[in-house]
Amino acid sequence: MYNIAVILAGGIGARVGGNTPKQLLPLEDGHSVLEHAVNAFEQSPHIHEVCIVMHPDYIIHAEQMLLANAWQKVRHIIPGGKERWESSVNAIRAISEKNNCQSPVANRPNEVNLLLHDAARPFVSQDIIARVCEALELHEAVTVAIPSTDTVYEMADRRVARIPVRSTIMRAQTPQAFRLELIAEAYTKALGADICDKEACAACHLPATDDCGIVHEHMPNVPIYIVEGEEQNRKITFKEDI
């Protein structure tokens, strides 16, 4: 199998504050959030290519990082969309178009898998990446999650509507991984348009924040296998997280 990591860095991180997208902010070692995320997949022996989906206004920064870090696996730096799902679709389209959006990508063995990862999770471990890639040997759709340590409420009109059993609740992380053909078909069904038709997709709207949600809703017969994540694979959302 051929595994392509897609690093989703198309947002501006408004909840962090300031004028710089959170994926460009430096961590304690001086390297940016985005660099940490890319490095994790660059260093994994299970990953063959990396695609960075970047906010259009900041693509030059990703290109500068590519040169500064001498990344060997980064083959695509493409513009993201206004919403997260648009960034995912842009990546699926760019990779699929290498072979006319239809057949397997040229010169790559067996199935092509996409691992869609939030750049805002810079601490993803080599163990998580390995577990996801190993699970892809047997499953078409794989996600990462950790058990919830908190009780979760379902709300309606600012009131508790239901309290799910905590042992059945897991907190989603990334990467979320799929066969290329599967995730392309799921988004095509969700959009009601061929993902390779840019104009048709531009006119669409999805209330989706999660790629697994697209597969779960529009490909309900495909089971999504859960790989155990780690607390350190947390998401940077607020200024305090930096």
* Largest sheet geometry: 7 strands, mixed
Radius of gyration: 18 Å
| Order of SSEs | EHEHEHEHEEEEHHHE
State the helicity in percent bands.
25-40%
Identify the overall geometry. globular
Instruction: Report the count of strand segments.
Output: 9
Description of the molecule:
The protein is 29% helix and 23% strand. The chain is of the alpha/beta class and 242 residues long. It has a seven-stranded mixed sheet with strand order 3-2-1-4-8-5-9, with helices on both faces. A two-stranded antiparallel sheet has the order 6-7. The radius of gyration is 18 Å and the shape is globular. Mean pLDDT is 90; it is low at 101-106.
Topology:
Layout: E1 2-9, H1 33-42, E2 49-54, H2 59-69, E3 74-79, H3 84-96, E4 112-118, H4 126-135, E5 141-147, E6 154-156, E7 159-162, E8 170-179, H5 180-191, H6 198-202, H7 211-218, E9 225-228
Parallel strand pairs: 1-2, 1-4, 2-3, 5-9
Antiparallel strand pairs: 4-8, 5-8, 6-7
Helix pairs in contact: 3-5, 5-7
Describe what is shown at a glance:
By secondary structure, this protein is an alpha/beta fold. The protein has helices at 33-42, 59-69, 84-96, 126-135, 180-191, 198-202, 211-218; strands at 2-9, 49-54, 74-79, 112-118, 141-147, 154-156, 159-162, 170-179, 225-228.
Quickly list its features.
242 residues; 7-stranded mixed β-sheet; two-stranded antiparallel ribbon; alpha/beta
